């Protein structure tokens, strides 16, 4: 899977959790989930669960803590899938 494909899948996973004041177009690879996309911690947990389901991976606590930006999430997913 290419970086672009990871990005598009993540974008589709994240978009339902965006607050009304943030558009899907604002999701960039370097977007910080909490600071820039205004995703609250409860929704971030939902995103993690959706990522696990979509990519058939298990994210550990340290993975979740490291998943600050969309790019971080892509790197973690890629690493988990390559194991």
Automatic annotation (TrEMBL):
The keyword Transmembrane helix is assigned to this record: no
Chief location of this protein within or outside the cell: cytoplasm
Keyword terms, alphabetized: Cytoplasm, Fatty acid biosynthesis, Fatty acid metabolism, Lipid biosynthesis, Lipid metabolism, Phosphopantetheine, Phosphoprotein
This protein's GO CC annotations: cytoplasm
Changes after translation: 4'-phosphopantetheine is transferred from CoA to a specific serine of apo-ACP by AcpS. This modification is essential for activity because fatty acids are bound in thioester linkage to the sulfhydryl of the prosthetic group.
Family matches, as Pfam families: PP-binding (PF00550)
Modified residues (O-(pantetheine 4'-phosphoryl)serine): 41
Pathway this chain belongs to: Lipid metabolism; fatty acid biosynthesis
Compartment list: Cytoplasm
Function per UniProt: Carrier of the growing fatty acid chain in fatty acid biosynthesis.
Family the entry assigns: Belongs to the acyl carrier protein (ACP) family.
Name of the protein this chain belongs to: Acyl carrier protein
Gene: acpP
């Amino acid at each position: 899977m290419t970086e672009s494909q990871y990005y598009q899948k993540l974008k589709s996973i994240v978009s339902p959790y965006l607050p009304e004041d943030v558009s899907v177009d604002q999701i960039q690879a370097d977007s910080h989930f909490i600071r820039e996309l205004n995703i609250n911690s409860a929704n971030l947990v939902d995103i993690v669960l959706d990522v696990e389901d979509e990519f058939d991976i298990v994210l550990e606590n340290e993975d979740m803590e490291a998943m600050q930006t969309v790019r971080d999430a892509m790197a973690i997913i890629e690493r988990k899938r390559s194991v």
